[in-house]
Amino acid sequence: MMRERFVDTTTALLGDDPRTALVLADISAAAFEPAARRHPDRVLNVGIREQLMVGVAGGLALTGLRPIVHTYAPFLVERAYEQLKLDLDHQGVTAVLVSVGASYDRAAAGRTHLSPADVSLVDSLHGWTVHVPGHPDEVPTLLRGAVAADASAYLRLSTQHNARPYGGDGTLRVLRDAGPGAPLLVAVGPVLDAALAAVADLGVTVAYTHRPRPFDTAGLRALADTEVILVEPYLAGTSARVVSAALADRPHRLLALGVGREELRRYGSAEDHTRWHGLDAVGLRRSVDEFLASAPASAGR
């Protein structure tokens, strides 16, 4: 699982690089106990004080350390957003945020543990890189790269994943080429398998990325014709402004799919929420069929 790969990679980084530090707010503290015993000055658990956690990370960064900050997405991004804005960005220091829980992995825990808007909030900050791995095997390389980059980054881990890793540097990777003029579907992270299944018998080109920020706009312009379908595992439309801006000089139609804005007010499992938000293969196929059927007669396909 992604969380285990994160723990293993971070533990190794703490041993390899004396600049690396880890700040926790109880979540995953037990998994990092061996690392805390070996590096008590660089593994800090502040308890259930997420705002303090980010503030401590800002202080560590001011001393020259490279902090990794970790907890559930709603506590890391939504609850501590002011500290991200002030204690990191405003102070001109950087950190690597690593979340678990994604949009609704812990659906059974209720609304407190759901965070479909996290990437949108991080996107309101300046110059952050966002990684959304689609498989556990993508996590170590992404984490090591983020720590080495000395820039602010958000790594969004999930219990949901594709059947195989795809890696790469985050530029759009074509996994299914339907030829010139075909609609382009861009899948981010763990929604790829469902997207591929949804359009398996359609003339749709499918490209994958685990790095929605910075979005590969050059790759998008090279691949896109008239119709673009964006499938993201967080709030629907999060990357719509980036895609629209990249294609502003050419006629295009955009379908942005993701987690809906309406609060469902029910528990269920992560698989239930995927289905309710139309992000399973059946739901995606329904949305894609409606979108393509509504195309003007002059639109190329």
Automatic annotation (TrEMBL):
The protein here is known as Transketolase
Family matches, as InterPro entries: PDH/Transketolase, THDP-binding, Transketo_C/PFOR_II, Transketolase-like_Pyr-bd
Ranges of residues in domain Transketolase-like pyrimidine-binding: 2-165
Record organism: Micromonospora citrea
Q: Which Pfam family is one of those matched by this entry?
A: Transket_pyr
The protein's matches in PANTHER family, at most eight in alphabetical order, are given as: PYRUVATE DEHYDROGENASE E1 COMPONENT, TRANSKETOLASE-LIKE PYRIMIDINE-BINDING DOMAIN-CONTAINING PROTEIN
| One Gene Ontology MF term | magnesium ion binding
